[in-house]
Amino acid sequence: MHASPVSTATCVRRLFVLLCGYEIIPLSVSLRGADDRLVIAVPITAYLLDTDRGWVLFDTGLDEANLRDPARRASHYTAIGWDPAPVVKPHHELGAQLAGLGLGFDDISTVILSHLHADHTGHLKRLTHARVLIQKAEQACIAQDPLPMAVFASDIRLDGLRWDILDGDAEIMPGITALFTPGHTPGHMSLRVDLPVTGPVILTADVGDLAENFDAGILPGASVDDDAALASIRRINALEAETGALKLMTHDPDQARRIRLAPECYD
Ligand SMILES: [Zn+2]
Questions:
Q1: CA of 86 relative to ligand 1 center, distance in Å
Q2: pLDDT tens-digit map of 134-161
């Protein structure tokens, strides 16, 4: 369906995996058709890239401010059926994790959003100085009324954002390639990152939550287009097979226990 762009040189020096909290959800949200009595806790992950062209953030985690304040916790989560609310402990907070690496929000020059859901866009409001890359079909959802489920106006309707709109696959810089992977949302995107030592890495974002989504070709629970979502799973599988890439999943709890988390990194 798509050619896979390949970078020959890379601007990327290091990749940090930032574990930004957990969501407690029925297994059927991640794995379609699963027994609804089964509940899992899935990580919320963002990725920080150290590049020749500055610090790049892929997704921004969830805004803990909406959890700390009881009224906002109710209005954003528990009163609208997102219950239990996500878990973001102080050491999960994106700002704390950046600080642990000697960085602040101001140091991020580029943000890439996989999609608009609240567990990916929470800290965009602290990154309005940055260039923000998003797919055209995803950005278009910001104008929808009402907004799609799990998209918070306060996360994405921000004054002065410097959108940089992509339409399909694109090389963002040498070593960072946008992969258009719709299905979970209209303009979902994944990334291919080429690292000097590790080699190719695929950041799946929400094409699949769990390894089983990819290994068994099982759709996650929520999708705006099942055919596209399945094609995106197969595309990631094909790219992984073709390149031998390390595949990092945003929401897989078992993988989160086995990979290097910041301040460790992949180089
Ligand atoms: Zn997500």
A1: 12
A2: 999 999 999 999 999 999 999 999 999 9
* Dist. CA 9 → ligand 1 center (Å): 30
Single pTM value for the model: 0.95
Query: What is the tens place of the pLDDT at every residue in 86-125?
Result: 999 999 999 999 999 999 999 999 999 999 999 999 999 9
How many whole angstroms from 40 Cα to the centroid of ligand 1?
14
Cis peptide before 90 (omega within 30 of 0): no
Domain parsing of the chain, residue ranges: 12-258
The predicted structure's pLDDT at residue 50: 98
Instruction: Give residue 117 CA to ligand 1 midpoint distance, Å.
Output: 6
- Domain 12-258, CATH: 3.60.15.10
Mean pLDDT value of segment 182-188: 98
